[in-house]
């Protein structure tokens, strides 16, 4: 009996403390004019529920509070916007005080000149320099031949093997970028660079605790190692008479380049290019392989498009710009994959001053999660939204529609969209014209907070 009374007392005490803490956190963030919502626990907020329930958490909160609500996730008081019009407004109005709001760990590791860390005229300069690097003529004349050459060699000798397509697409995204940046994909520097880059990526997704055995600590150290390698590369290029035709040569060419960057900016620009195109391109490629496996009719149509291109060529002929432009169905497969898998759930902004949005008052320094995931499953825009149907993208200029946020929107819209699509298209070209594949089975796929196969996605490959 005595034990029962003590236990009852402990449970009651815990309940009272929990209620008091939850209440205290609500009161702490109570301010006139804020959107409705709950703030969860002190410090942790609702992060656990958000990570555990993912999209279901967002939908629950929307059902309770509407399209715009407040929460406390990933260490910050946050406004979540699932309102398409407001999302568009936020993305279009950086100059009104709605700047990128990515976590400190990400900004520290990607560098203070990285594009997400800079605003105003510095952003214009960094973005201008980047757009010049990935413009259609640059893709046509310089990058596509490099991508083609890389994919041919990366996709050779897969026959009669079991391949982890997640691992292969990750290596592909990284090494293909490194080839376009500085032709390093088969050098000893690439072998040193790759593990450092993977540590850097992990570090950007961690809590900013700078100790040697934390992901952040390792990521930060990896950044320093990468910066030294790139600094050495810049010195070697300056000391040598050799001419190069790659992204780095363009960035270093101060005479012909309209956008002049310092060495520090060039290094952060390179890290940004590697980082931004890494997970997006690799995960979209992996998920395209998954959906094509599950939808034989789509695979048949895609293969038809690629075999028709191959038929007009000798086996050794590379893909050219006209071939790429003719891949209409492939483009549709890539967009449908990005939509259905939701490779990017949304983007983060923060307020630089108190402001009014949709009639609510948003305090200075609050994060805004422009959550675009749900729009991908809106049946008014995409009939039968859960069906993988690339044909829907052929009907109208769907990627020009008003609420197409797969590549973001406004002043920060993805500058690498065309390059990313060209890389994935070239990968698919060589994959479907060379191989057939079967899933080994038993692999799990996670959809939130990132799309990933925790133990890999294994396929058995044979010749086509
Ligand atoms: C399927 C592939 C890709 C997807 C789905 C994608 C998606 C996105 C999204 C949603 C944003 C907006 C971020 C924001 O508003 O905060 C973005 C920005 C960006 N992307 Fe991509 N991306 C892809 C490929 C690439 C590639 C290959 C590059 C390499 C050049 C790249 C470079 C960037 C950069 C530098 C930004 C920041 C732009 C700025 O802040 O002005 N992306 N991307």
Automatic annotation (TrEMBL):
* Subcellular location field: Membrane
Cofactor field: heme
CDD domains per the record?
Answer: CYP90-like (cd11043)
Assigned keywords, A-Z: Heme, Iron, Membrane, Metal-binding, Monooxygenase, Oxidoreductase, Transmembrane, Transmembrane helix
Query: One MF term in GO for this entry?
Result: oxidoreductase activity, acting on paired donors, with incorporation or reduction of molecular oxygen
Domain of life, per UniProt, equals Eukaryota
Membrane-protein topology? Single-pass membrane protein
Catalysed reactions, as listed in the record:
6-deoxocastasterone + reduced [NADPH--hemoprotein reductase] + O2 = 6alpha-hydroxycastasterone + oxidized [NADPH--hemoprotein reductase] + H2O + H(+); 6alpha-hydroxycastasterone + reduced [NADPH--hemoprotein reductase] + O2 = castasterone + oxidized [NADPH--hemoprotein reductase] + 2 H2O + H(+)
**What coarse category fits the chief subcellular location reported for this protein?**
membrane
Query: Cross-referenced InterPro entries, in alphabetical order?
Result: Cyt_P450, Cyt_P450_CS, Cyt_P450_E_grp-I, Cyt_P450_sf
A Pfam family this protein belongs to?
p450
Residues the record lists as binding heme: 414
Task: Mention any one GO cellular component term assigned to this protein in its UniProt record.
Answer: membrane
Q: Name one GO biological process term.
A: brassinosteroid homeostasis
By sequence similarity, the record places it as follows:
Belongs to the cytochrome P450 family.
Q: What is this protein called?
A: C6-oxidase
Biological source species: Heracleum sosnowskyi
């Amino acid at each position: 009996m005595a034990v029962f009374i003590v236990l009852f007392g402990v449970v009651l005490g815990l309940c009272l403390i929990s209620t008091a803490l939850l209440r205290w956190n609500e009161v702490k963030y109570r301010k006139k004019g804020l959107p409705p919502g709950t703030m969860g626990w002190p410090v942790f907020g609702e992060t656990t529920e958000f990570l555990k329930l993912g999209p279901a958490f967002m939908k629950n909160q929307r059902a309770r509070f509407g399209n715009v609500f407040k929460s406390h996730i990933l260490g910050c008081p946050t406004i979540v916007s699932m309102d398409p019009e407001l999302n568009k407004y936020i993305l279009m109005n950086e100059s009104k005080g709605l700047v990128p709001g990515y976590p400190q760990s990400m900004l520290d590791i990607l560098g203070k000149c990285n594009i997400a860390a800079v605003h105003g005229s510095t952003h214009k300069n960094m973005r201008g320099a980047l757009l010049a690097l990935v413009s259609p003529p640059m893709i046509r004349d310089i990058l596509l031949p490099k991508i083609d050459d890389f994919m041919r060699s990366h996709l050779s000798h897969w026959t009669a093997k079991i391949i982890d397509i997640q691992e292969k697409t990750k290596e592909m995204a990284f090494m293909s970028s490194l080839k376009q940046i500085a032709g390093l994909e088969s050098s000893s520097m690439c072998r040193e660079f790759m593990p450092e880059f993977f540590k850097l990526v992990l570090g950007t997704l961690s809590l900013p605790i700078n100790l040697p055995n934390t992901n952040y600590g390792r990521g930060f150290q990896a950044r320093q190692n990468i910066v030294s390698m790139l600094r050495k590369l810049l010195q070697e290029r300056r000391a040598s008479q050799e001419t190069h035709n790659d992204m780095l040569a363009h960035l270093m060419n101060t005479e012909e380049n309209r956008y002049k960057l310092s060495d520090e900016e060039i290094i952060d620009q390179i890290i940004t290019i590697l980082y931004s195109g890494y997970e997006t391109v690799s995960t979209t490629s992996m998920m395209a392989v998954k959906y094509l496996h599950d939808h034989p009719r789509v695979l048949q149509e895609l293969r038809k498009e690629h075999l028709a291109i191959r038929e007009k060529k000798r086996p050794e002929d590379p893909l050219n710009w006209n071939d790429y432009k003719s891949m209409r169905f492939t483009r549709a497969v890539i967009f449908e994959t990005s939509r259905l898998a939701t490779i990017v759930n949304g983007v983060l902004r923060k307020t630089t001053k108190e402001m009014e949005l949709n009639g609510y008052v948003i305090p200075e320094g609050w994060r805004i999660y422009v959550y675009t995931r749900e729009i991908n499953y809106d049946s008014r825009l995409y009939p039968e939204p859960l069906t993988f149907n690339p044909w829907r993208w052929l009907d109208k200029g769907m990627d020009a529609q008003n609420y197409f946020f797969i590549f973001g929107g406004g002043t920060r819209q993805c500058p690498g969209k065309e390059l990313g699509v060209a890389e994935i298209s070239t990968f698919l070209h060589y994959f479907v014209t060379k191989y057939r594949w079967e899933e080994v089975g038993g692999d799990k796929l996670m959809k939130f907070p990132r799309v990933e196969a925790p133990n890999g996605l294994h396929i058995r490959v044979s010749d086509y």
